[in-house]
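Cross-posted from the bioinformatics board.
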Amino acid sequence: MTDDQPHCLVEIKKLRKSYGQVEVLKGIDLCIQRKEVVCIIGKSGSGKSTLLRCVNGLEVFQQGELLVDGLPVKSQDAQAMRALRQKVGMVFQSFNLFPAMSAGSNVMLAPRLVKGLPGAQTRALAEKLLKRVGLEDKFDSYPNELSGGQQQRVAIARALAMNPEVILCDEITSALDPELVGEVLQVIEGLAKEGVTLMIVTHEMNFARKVCDRIIFMHQGLVHEMGTPEALFTNPQTPELRSFLSMNHG
Amino acid sequence: MNSFTTWDVIRNLLLSVPWTLFLSAIAFVGGSVLGLILLVLRIMKPHSLGRAITWYVQLFQGTPLLMQLFLTYFGLALFGLNPSPLLAATLCLSLYAGAFLTETWHGCVMSIPKGQWEASSSLALNLREQLQYVIFPQAVRVSVPPTVGLGVQIIKNTSLASVIGFVELTRTGQIITNVTYDPFFVYGVVALLYFAICFPCSMWGRALERKFTFKH
């Protein structure tokens, strides 16, 4: 409890995870601070998505500890996970909007069920959030009536609706047509400026460079290199990161 | 020597149609309730209860309904219960329908993309809320065609209840044939009556299917 010890919003200690015999996370230590925007980069198979999915318990890990705002991730304890997941929002690569519900209902569902907010209040909240992502006129549209970029923005509004402490973004532009990437990244950039804590797994290097406070380069299940975008992109220390960056810029 | 007129035959067969409908309805409703309960149990406890339910399903899918009816009717008698044909038939057909319906619906639930579970989990919904608000509304749409198909199967399979002496459409046909010695005509009418019940069901199912289909 000393003052010079920064408080971690997301604290990851010696995290290990395997699928059967294959170890995909080999001991991760990380501390994400409040209002920090962290981008995780690395080759596919480096464990970056798995790490992100451990934070809200979508993946079960075998060893180590993971805390969000002081609450430990206990994937077997439904009660604990319900409390924890209210603090962690997530946006997925494939949007995963609920197809039987309008955009507005997608956003309103969790606040109504989990937080028990009354109907009028959730509606006002959903209208406000859809406006925030630039879709105030799409409240009654169904997901299949929206473009990929619009669907992903609804998904961001849905994650924001629970007023989470941190939002996880798992390759949220990878399923989008190139011309739709910008509108989604713009929304995320806006959130970053407003001080929302973000953990972003991305292949968009220019975006990572522009928006993130800290870049984490993962390689073979470990944090291989970590630092400010400036330091990592202009002066990579390891041959692995150099080769990764040259592949992505080439 | 034949005291039955054509109209007598048709009239008696028509009078037995409600019993076929009644048996079908009870079997379908009973099977649905059972199937839904087992479905939820199977999703909640896939390893322990799920395995037991799979065995139940395999047992009823892997044996002829005729044997199931015999075993229910005569088996209950072994335990000192003397079920009426109606009770034995509804019990057996409900168990039979429950096995097929729970298996079909389980398949429908499993066909919902994993991302729907993950998105609803990450929004802190509990299992009941996930099923009620996210998974079932989608699974129901997928399940319409196979469920209607099973319903039609059940209607036709109630004809087997005739073997334990339950007097429905088929049994009535047998009784009349014993008197008139004109099986082709009598069973022809019986078949047409089954068709007249099943065909509208299938059509209705198709209409529902069209209404419920949506794109992801």
